[in-house]
Amino acid sequence: MKKAVVLLSGGMDSAAVVALAQEQGFSVHALSVRYGQRHTSELAAAERVAQALGVAAHKVVDVDLRSIGGSALTDDIEVPDAGGPGIPSTYVPARNTIMLSLALGWAEVLGAHDLFCGVNTVDYSGYPDCRPAFIAAFQTLANLATKAGVEGAGLRVHAPLQHLSKAQIAREGVRLGVDFSLTVSCYRADGQGRACGRCDACRLRADGFAAAGLADPTCYA
């Protein structure tokens, strides 16, 4: 089977992406990043999802973004209940660039030509590294900056959820057999992975399941 490296955060979007990549015939090598995030229970969720979906391999890489700070997820900044105008405080500087770079390095080692990530339309307005232009630019970078891009068959960056709403993502996941009860999306999840029910991530997730007409499997504190 052709190999792909899929970024797996432990949230609902990345879990759906793993299943979509598998449906497309890829042997999934899932990559999670322990970057100093306050909601570390998502890493336990990533492990649960990887096991449940039967990925070929699951790797966790450590990068200390807390030493840089600048985000409510990696610094002593309170996570807001709801986002306001502009880029929210939960934006982590350069996070997707760093994570995709790690995925790119592993893909070269594996001989994989495909990277998958779970960015989607809901996050465009808030997070600059979720825009289609960013994904296209990173694919260009990947093919310019690597041996695989210059001498090999080239590299592709897939963002299959890019134009889907949370409701559509929920429906796709259910269609593919994803158990969303295993996932954690909350920015303030506790050590057991229980969600706060008030942050933007919780609101978007709950609204998505409601709009899809599906029961919300989230465990709330």
Automatic annotation (TrEMBL):
Keyword Transcription regulation tagged: no
Gene: queC
Cofactor(s) the protein needs: Zn(2+)
Gene3D superfamilies: HUPs
Catalytic reaction annotation: 7-carboxy-7-carbaguanine + NH4(+) + 2 ATP = 7-cyano-7-carbaguanine + 2 AMP + 2 diphosphate + 2 H(+)
Source species: Stenotrophomonas mori
Entry binding sites for ATP: L8, S9, G10, G11, M12, D13, S14, A15, A16, V17, V18
Similarity comment: Belongs to the QueC family.
Pathway note: Purine metabolism; 7-cyano-7-deazaguanine biosynthesis
NCBIfam families in alphabetical order: 7-cyano-7-deazaguanine synthase QueC
EC number in record: 6.3.4.20
Cofactor binding: number and manner: Binds 1 zinc ion per subunit.
Annotated Zn(2+) binding sites: C186, C196, C199, C202
Record-linked InterPro entries: QueC (IPR018317), Rossmann-like_a/b/a_fold (IPR014729)
GO molecular function: ligase activity
Name this polypeptide is given: 7-cyano-7-deazaguanine synthase
Keyword annotations from UniProtKB, A to Z: ATP-binding, Ligase, Metal-binding, Nucleotide-binding, Queuosine biosynthesis, Zinc
Summary of the function given for this chain in its UniProt record: Catalyzes the ATP-dependent conversion of 7-carboxy-7-deazaguanine (CDG) to 7-cyano-7-deazaguanine (preQ(0)).
Pfam families in the record: QueC (PF06508)
